[in-house]
User: Fold these one by one.
Assistant:
Number 1:
Amino acid sequence: MLKALPLLFPNLNGTASGARGDFYDKFQREADERDRDFMKKYDEDLNTTLIFVSIFPAPTTDVALIRLSGG
Amino acid sequence: MSYELLKIVANATLGISADPTFPKWDGPDPTVVHVQSILYSSLAASLLSAFVAMLGKQWLNRYAQVEMRGSAVDRSRHRQRKMDGMVNWHFDLIMECLPLMLQAALLLLGYALSEYLFSINKTVAGVLIGFTTAGLLFYLLIVSAATLSYNCPFQTPLSRILSFLIHSDNGHKKYRGRTSLYRTKNLPRPWPSGPRSWRCGGNRPDDHIMVPMANVPDTDPLFDKEIDLDDFVLDSKCITWMFNTSMDADATMAIMKFIPEVVWHAGIRTTPLERIYDTILERFDPSSGRPILIPKLREATYLSAKALLHLVIQRQCIGNESDRVVFNSILVRHLTMGFGFYDSDLEVTLGIIDRIFRNSKPMDWQTFSFTIPHHTWMGHILLYHAWDILGKGEPLPNYIREFVLHSLQLEPPPPTTIVADCLFIIGLILGIQLHITDLFVADKRWVHFVHVRYGGTLISFVTAPK
């Protein structure tokens, strides 16, 4: 009886029909992969920026402070 | 000069000899102030970019988060929404401008140091100026090279913006070729509003599109079924995205299977119509003058043909200008495909495509025996077609009439869904008007309240739901 249920009421079986479900399964797999690439790319870009920014102000402030105190 | 003037004025007005020792400025000299301000602006720029970079990390994390708990369908749609947001708000541009700020900071530092050293020691300054100019020249060279040639590996954000602005090298675009055709998403569309239109739901104002369907008379919908048109918009975006990303045969099959499930209403801006047509053409062997289907691709061809017919008919009902361009481009290069000894489902689908794009000899309906899913779908889509053609005041094509006759004469009779569609087509021929949303309903047996305008009178009757 329980096995026959999905056959009798195909709409009970989730909201997605077969084709829709299939498509979105594939879509999600593809999208996950793409998103991972996307995230990785921008994350690395941001890391480069942050590393540069962490080094850059040191010499700048040094020079600026020498000028202020040295007159 | 002003000091002398001041002394004269003081002598004249006060009558006393002013003190000639004027207080001397003992702060930093103007060069130093200038250099200082440039140095600090450089520092500020670098700190600002650090701030934006930090925010950027948070934005990325937010994008990666899956806050929806629904089904795969809901999550995918949600993801597509976020992706569209990224594209519409030019996320990548902001991210790419970040290094630009850092480069500016570096340039400012070089300039400030050079200027300061120049006031102290010309030789040391010469070395620094030399390096700074060399760096600047190198950068300019790189930017101009990358702007002029897309294939140049030294791409920088600036060069990408510049080449976008001047479109100097479009060589790479030819690889995208046809894809760019469906990316015409921001076309201005002067929708006429008024009683002949229906609305998409949704919360954001840009989702509210007044949608005219050609020649819609003032009729009330027969079905009170709720249809979320926004979901179909998201579906179509997912399909377009998938088409552009994946070349996989499996993925293409899944897309083709899915396309007939979507209602391609006028709120959907882009359709993969031409792409599907190309996919079908690829299935045929063009070597002998008339296209011949490669046998093992039968199933794939059937699905693509079904998707194409579904899209063509639904988009024809809308009468959109950009669709018409695509129709015409297909019309020009269409080769008759519906000959051959395939099974009924495929042959009739290809046959109707042929008849839409180019008339040919009548089909032999007596020999056809359709599978039930195909037959159901045919009834559904041909009703759209009949609605469109009759609404334009043109005569009903033979294949629709023959489809109705064929379906109603079948022994044993086809499923009631198909009969319902056929009866609706007959109703259209009789002049009973249908609202466009009625066509969206796949199973038309569930009419609760029927208001039918026939001639000048409104007839209302109730059918009991099962």
Number 2:
Amino acid sequence: MAEKRITIRATRYDPEKDRAPRMQSYDIPFTDDAMVVLDALNYIKSHVDGSLSYRWSCRMGICGSCGMTVNGTPKLSCSAFLRDYWPRSVTVTPLNNFPIVRDLVVDMEDFMEKLKSIKPWIIRKEELPLGAGEHRQTMDQIDDFRQFSQCINCMLCYSACPVYGLDDKFLGPAAIALARRYNLDSRDQGTKERLPMIAHPDGIWECSFVGECSVVCPKGVDPAKAIQQTKLDTTMRFVLPYGNRE
Amino acid sequence: MSIEVEAAPPTATRTYRPAMGRGWWTRKSHYFWYMVREFTALPLALWLLWLLFEIQRAGRGASGYYPPSSTPFVIFSVICLLFALYHSFTFLSLAGVILHFKVLDKPVASRLIVLSQFGGWLVASIVIGAVLIGFGR
């Protein structure tokens, strides 16, 4: 019986040689139904073309490094099974909306700056001494923000967001979801410090609720929900007389 | 023995920034329906402008009120009605995502919020319909 094979089409871009990205096809053995797109890329790198560049690390959907566009949809390549595409070919391109550094590697600088700008850590008005004990939380209080803390910074949501694609000044889904995660945390008192970034015209108000960010999220986070709820909360803070109370 | 290594100056990497084509919204059905949702506001706004104009004319008395009844206008109005229904449907469906509050320290389920929105829509439609029919008699 003939060996099962699959065609992988991958973006190639060498900044020192190419003016624009091009596609290259690789015909590789598809030996195991458990093979994912990342396995295919690793096979190509090991056996066919060692110059292919891409990011990856954990291979188990935890680190968020291997985000790519697979047949037009942003996915973690370690979670995209070849069996879902075979016998069709699989086209792997870099994440949309980001500058391409080389092949499937994109420039994450803008995303990292945005993530940092919303101060994704617990802010206290006054730090208590260690002797005062831990900050206690009930399970209900944890449930308020648990969903938004599952983000692995894979940037798939930015890749799926046409608003970010059209205007990269937009703060973006993951950063706003993370800001909401901390604003909802009962231990945090930093909402006012994050407001200038969140309520900025390039923040929540730039989002027109396409909703694709939530569709592509591999961890079930709902950034669209975080953004819309933050819009409502921010408006309430402005409208209600007690809105700015902390 | 120590080896001195001189750090190389950082070099700027030339990146390629792909442009987002005008047809981006045709790539996925989700994007397409988002555009339809956003577009529905345009004919609705035109229809409402016309309504304001009619109200202003009606202010001069019954003689000034003669709404257009041509077939193209009726077709345009029906299309606007369909757009209005679709826009309302999407808007009210999203209420479950946006609204979040607790009753007796328990979060209210999204489905319940959406159902209450549609219930309110139905009641408001019946009340407005009854008022309009009542005045029309």
